[in-house]
Description:
The chain is an alpha+beta fold. The chain has three domains: 100 residues, Rossmann fold; 70 residues, Dna Ligase, domain 1; 242 residues, 2-Layer Sandwich (D-amino Acid Aminotransferase, Chain A, domain 1). It is 35% helix and 25% strand. An eight-stranded antiparallel beta sheet has the order 13-12-9-10-11-14-19-17, with helices on both faces. It is globular and about 60 Å long.
Amino acid sequence: MFRKILIANRGEIALRVICACKELDIATVAVYSEADRNALHVRFADEAVCIGPARSSDSYLNIPHVISAAEITDVDAIHPGYGFLSENANFAEVCEASQIAFIGPSPEILRLMGEKDHARREMAAAGVPVVPGSEGIVGDAESAAAEAGRIGYPLIIKASAGGGGRGMRVVRTREELPPLWETARQEAQQSFGVPDVYLEKFLERPRHIEFQVLGDRYGNVLHLGERECSIQRRHQKLVEESPSVALTPERRAELGNRVVNALRKVGYSNAGTVEFLMDEDGSFYFIEMNARIQVEHPVTELVTGVDLIKSQIRIAAGERLEAAVGPIEFRGHSIECRINAEDPDTFVPSAGRITAFNMPGGPGVRVDTAAHADAVIPPYYDSLIAKLIVHGRDRAEAIARMRRALEMFVVEGIKTSIPLHQRIFAEADFEAGHLDTHFLEHVLPVHGK
């Protein structure tokens, strides 16, 4: 087992990793920007190193600074969390070259899954259905027009190296294609450093369903069920739950087995998430794989009893999957709300000082956060300030608990998305499980745009 781990991240996920390390009796090193000097992950780590100014590019994304911090503190491993450097194959390679274990997939797998068009081809070859689309990168406007004619409208342009909704544009007519193709390329360049894009058929009202997977270095892979992530705004998830009401046990087993077999073929190791769109006719299509831990991993932890962060660490330390994961027992239903520091009506980020902060408690309620009263939410990073997660015997109890918990969650001094979540959970369509990725547009028009 590792002796000391550096957490190359901030906020709630950094605290989450620190918690897992403490339970495994592993020392921790926090890295922080100047804006995060007083953050909780700095306070609760055993050591802390400042790695640069507030901007991510100067601190959390600065590979030489992160590696230097790891070397001067003599760590055995680095946990990247999610976002920042978590799917950066170059960073994983630098870790290997520095004889520091990277708690995540190999650089080769990160590179494969990071190139979305390559991942599509690999999964299709392994028997996983994919959304009809272009054969690889579309390099110019003429090629884009030809591919679009073959695929048919509407279609979606996607950044090959992308995620999180950046570098994506929906095209409904031939006339829209040239300007949107160029806009997507520019955004891909700005967000990911490469302008490469590809095309996919656009599904009008799909569900977004993903499978949590774990693999070890000995060829063993398993899945821990699915999460429904259909309630989104501009491809950013707002609510996640497990299991999905749309899957029968038979369908879950079929898809899960396909995912496991595909990842076994590519030699996948550590945690990952395979994401699908489910069309209105029940057809499933692979869209991408996130080769890291997900923001929404707690809902899987609550329905399976598996500590995914500890499992990641144990797998990276060389343990076999069965020992690293422990017993799995699927039970009940779990839902997560992402509480963001933003205006619930306009979605404008709301940085500033929190003047009052009360977290809900009681049976079946969990809050993952690094926020607290008097904490300052800086304007430089993702707006997520807390994850409110509930677990119940069934979906009805989980919904009741989430409604109660949202009412008891008090954050003052900044605006948050709590009122929006309360509106979502008051909707009859949500309670009935009538969900798709355009839920906000159809049910709450003001909020879906």
